[in-house]
């Protein structure tokens, strides 16, 4: 298993570039005040290379959430190098700390597996814990407008609409309710994403200079196709 984001680039053909090699990948997702009676949704994409069926297993603690099978690969110069596979499922988590592990059950000496990504989404109480609160709802697109009740001891922090990262806008939080505030938005075809935070929070991450990188433009392209940003957990 290689727990690194596989990047799709346009350089004449689609290719994936995996990173660090390990046998299994484990990570913890923390959801403050998770609603235990609601489902947690899991999505994962992998790729397997083996002369026979490959299997990936996704677990939360001792509970097996699901398995992903990838077809056998026929070795040869003109054949596909690895076959993709995906999983979309749900389960109920009894606590806020959700530990997910992805294991590659290799079936032969020459078999290889890659993890593209694993994503967990859960329903929680909208409560501000003095750290950025991300707000969204999967059924929002089914209604003309949507209202959110946020529990917070402070109602005059910053609330931003970040649905389009290139067109961020502020939202007023002046509709006070007991213990917090309410805000409403008009919906369109896109699922809305919002963040409530304190811009003066000293714990907010700030960009800082570390080192100058050597030229990574190996093909000499005048315009970069993309900039890849990844979490520090995927660095090593």
Question: Can I get a quick summary?
Answer:
The chain has 236 residues and is mostly beta strands. The protein has two domains: 9-123, Galactose-binding domain-like (Jelly Rolls, Sandwich), CATH 2.60.120; 133-197, no CATH class. It contains no helices and 16 strands.
CATH architecture of the largest domain: Sandwich
**Domain tally:** 2
Secondary structure class reads mainly beta
- The H-level CATH homologous superfamily of the largest domain, spelled out, is Galactose-binding domain-like
Note the main sheet: 4 strands, antiparallel
Strand order of the largest sheet: 3-8-5-6
Name of the CATH first level of the largest domain:
Mainly Beta
Describe what you observe in this structure.
It is a single chain. This protein is mainly beta. The protein has two domains: about 10-125, Galactose-binding domain-like (Jelly Rolls); about 135-195, no CATH class. Helix content is about 0%, strand content about 40%. It is built from no helices and 16 strands. The strands form five sheets. A four-stranded antiparallel β-sheet has the order 3-8-5-6, with no helix packed on it. Strands 10-16-12-13 form a four-stranded antiparallel β-sheet, with no helix packed on it. A hairpin with a 3-residue loop joins strand 1 (about 10) and strand 2 (about 15). It is globular, with a radius of gyration of 21 Å. It starts with 8 loop residues before the first strand and ends in a 39-residue tail after the last strand. Residues about 1-15 have low confidence and may be disordered.
């Amino acid at each position: 298993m290689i727990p690194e984001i596989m990047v799709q680039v346009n350089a004449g053909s689609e290719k994936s570039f995996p990173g660090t090699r390990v046998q299994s990948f484990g990570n913890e997702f923390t959801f403050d005040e998770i609603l235990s009676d609601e489902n947690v949704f899991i999505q994962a994409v992998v790729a397997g290379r083996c002369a026979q069926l490959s299997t990936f297993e996704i677990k939360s603690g001792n509970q097996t959430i699901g398995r992903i099978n990838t077809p056998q690969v026929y070795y040869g110069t003109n054949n596909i190098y690895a076959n993709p596979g995906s999983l979309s499922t749900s389960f109920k988590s009894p606590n806020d700390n959700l530990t997910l592990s992805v294991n590659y059950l290799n079936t032969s000496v020459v078999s290889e597996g890659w993890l593209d990504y694993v994503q967990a989404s859960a329903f929680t109480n909208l409560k501000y814990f003095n750290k950025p609160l991300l707000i969204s709802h999967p059924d929002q697109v089914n209604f003309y407008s949507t209202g959110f009740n946020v529990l917070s001891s402070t109602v005059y922090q910053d609330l931003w609409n970040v649905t389009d990262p290139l067109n961020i806008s502020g939202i007023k939080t002046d509709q006070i309710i007991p213990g917090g505030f309410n805000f409403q938005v008009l919906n369109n075809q896109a699922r809305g994403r919002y963040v409530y935070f304190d811009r003066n929070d000293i714990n907010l991450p700030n960009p800082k200079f570390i080192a100058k990188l050597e030229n990574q433009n190996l093909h000499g392209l005048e315009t970069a196709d993309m900039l890849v940003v990844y979490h520090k957990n995927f660095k090593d």
